[in-house]
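In response to the reviewer comment on reproducibility (Comment 2.3), we provide here a single inverse folding case reported in full, input and output, so that an independent group could reproduce the run without further information from us. The structure tokens appear first.
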């Protein structure tokens, strides 16, 4: 009698299908959590500035974050995942995530190759999340530490930079509701 080999083949085929379904579901969860907010980049921020300029953008927005940071996760899930936020920021800025504890090599605005961790230190990041807007000349435009209250406040932060309001006033002057929210216990 000959043994049938179709049973193991069916089982392995079934496992492949389950794996594919799981991968599709988890990638959808990642997209829903705000990953669509970020541009895919190679870690060369000087080159990213040149690309942003060619695309008519105002500069870069860097989100400095750390794995396990609850405020970073909240920003990704409750703020950066909003379509309106994604459309606005992608229109005006090239947007990248930087791991403050990361060892991945990046090229900073001077052309030096450093770890993400060292890049974060050089940008004076002291906590997470921190949002730093960088102009097309590679200079910092504004630095925002912490999570915003909601998508509306984050959009106002984007407007504050995109419209050049940071030149003459603080974010709290531009958007008084932000100051009131930060003072609440």
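Designed residues, in position order:
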């Amino acid at each position: 009698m000959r043994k049938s080999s179709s049973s193991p083949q069916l089982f392995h085929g079934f496992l492949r299908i389950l794996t594919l379904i799981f991968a599709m579901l988890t990638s959808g969860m990642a997209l829903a959590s705000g990953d669509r907010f970020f541009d895919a980049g190679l870690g060369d921020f000087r080159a990213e500035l040149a690309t942003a300029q060619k695309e008519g953008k105002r500069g870069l927005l860097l989100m400095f974050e750390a794995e396990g940071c609850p405020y970073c996760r909240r920003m990704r899930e409750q703020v950066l995942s909003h379509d309106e936020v994604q459309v606005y920021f992608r229109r005006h800025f090239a947007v990248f995530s930087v791991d403050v504890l990361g060892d991945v090599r990046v090229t900073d605005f001077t052309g030096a190759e450093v770890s993400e961790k060292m890049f974060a230190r050089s940008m004076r990041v002291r906590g997470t999340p921190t949002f730093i807007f960088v102009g097309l000349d590679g200079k910092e435009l504004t630095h925002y530490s912490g999570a915003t209250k909601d998508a509306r406040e984050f959009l106002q932060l984007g407007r504050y930079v995109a419209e050049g309001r940071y030149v003459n006033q603080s974010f709290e002057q531009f958007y008084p509701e932000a100051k009131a929210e930060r003072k609440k216990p």
